[in-house]
Amino acid sequence: MTAARPVLVVAEQLDASADMVVDQLNQRDVPVMRFDSADFPQKVSVTARHEPAVTGWQGTLDDGHRSARLENIRAVYYRRPGRPVIADTVTEPYATWAQNQADAAMLNLLSALPVRWINNPHSDRIAAHKPQQLVAAARAGLRVPHSIITNDPDAARAFAKQLNAPLICKPVLGGRLNTGTGRELMVATHRIDPVDFDDSIRLTAHYMQEAIPKQYEVRLVVVDGNMFAGTLVGTSEKARTDWRTDYEAIEYGTTTVPGKVATAVRRFMASYGIVFGSFDFAVTPEDEWVFFENNPAGTWSWVENRTGLPIAAAHADYLQGTT
Q1: Contact call for residues 36 and 42 (beta carbons, < 8 A)
Q2: Cβ neighbours of 201 (radius 10 Å)
Q3: Is residue 22 located within the same domain as residue 112?
């Protein structure tokens, strides 16, 4: 790679959002080095030194085809890379130990770079916690649903009785179920009936909320304070409850973010020190925006593809340093 300052893109090889950002940077002749942390240490090598008289780490990141000097990196786009994969020749318990060492070295070395980030993984990790998000959102001035997290069936019944309104249940932590058959199942948001509450609630934590009446939903993608709001209108009951369960029953569009909501969202993001967020809102029949959650590493390529909103260009603007 040339002496020009590159943007480092750390993502899985098959990632549409990362592809779109790289394409935008290529169009601007901004050098890019892209790799997946899963390729470290078998296909990617790193050598970094820190000297007492020098501010920051210096060294080389190399994947066998391209290389970049750590001190020359201008920005990092960090988007859901895999964990390092250790050679099969390393047996347990050393394989797990080696993986943790490689993971910590790459993550913390990159995080120490004093550059523009989307998003620094340490900030990203904290910003992903859903229970804390409700507190931060309410503090920022956003409306949030009545919510309870409990493994106590009596507390769940009391919550339902107090609200006397439809309820939903959703995961506290995202992810998929490994069925052991090669297929992974998504645990979707679903409606619940208090009549069905029983002692099985004691088996784990349950995250319950009031079911917000929806005129439509919004996937709000925020990049460096710029708002890109894609609307989703579910045309089936499944899509209205969780649009991820019925993509064929969604009508897409765009909308303008109310000024009060935009100000609150920026305040929310500043509280976490992040510049990117992928927010889920419901807009009620009264046009009130209700915050559900923010994914600081959420997907957005489909929003741009469905609506034409220039989200990839906004990423490139920030990473290139034009904003």
Answers
A1: no
A2: 20
A3: yes
DSSP-derived secondary structure letter, 28: T
Residue position matching structure tokens 């046009």: 287
Query: Residue 131 domain-assigned?
Result: no
- Indicate the helix (H) or strand (E) that contains 136: helix 130-140
Distance CA 254, CA 231 (A): 5
Note whether 196 and 233 are same-domain residues.
no
Does a structural domain hold residue 130? no
- For residue 235, give its domain range: 213-314
Phi, psi of 37 (to 5 degrees): -60, -25
pTM, entire model = 0.91
Q: How confident is the model over 168-201, as pLDDT tens digits?
A: 999 998 767 766 676 667 778 889 999 999 999 9
Q: What is the pLDDT of residue 188?
A: 82
Angstrom distance (rounded) from CA 244 to CA 130: 18
- Whether 234 has a pLDDT exceeding 60, the answer reads yes
Residue entry with tokens 């029949």: 285
3-class SS of residue 311: helix
Read off the tokens for 151: 């493994």
Q: What CA–CA distance (Å, rounded) separates 103 from 117? A: 18
d(C-alpha 127, C-alpha 64), whole Å: 34
pLDDT tens for each residue of 115-169: 999 999 999 999 999 999 999 999 999 999 999 999 999 999 999 999 999 999 9
- The 3 state secondary structure assigned to 132-183 is HHHHHHHHHCCECCCEEEECCHHHHHHHHHHHCCCEEEECCCCCEEECCCCC
Tell whether 106 and 167 lie within a shared domain: no
User: Is there a single domain that holds both residue 293 and residue 203?
Assistant: no
Tell whether the torsion through CA atoms of 247, 251, 253 and 256 is positive or negative: negative
Which residues, including other chains, have CB under 8 Å from residue 64's CB and lie 6 or more apart? 43, 44
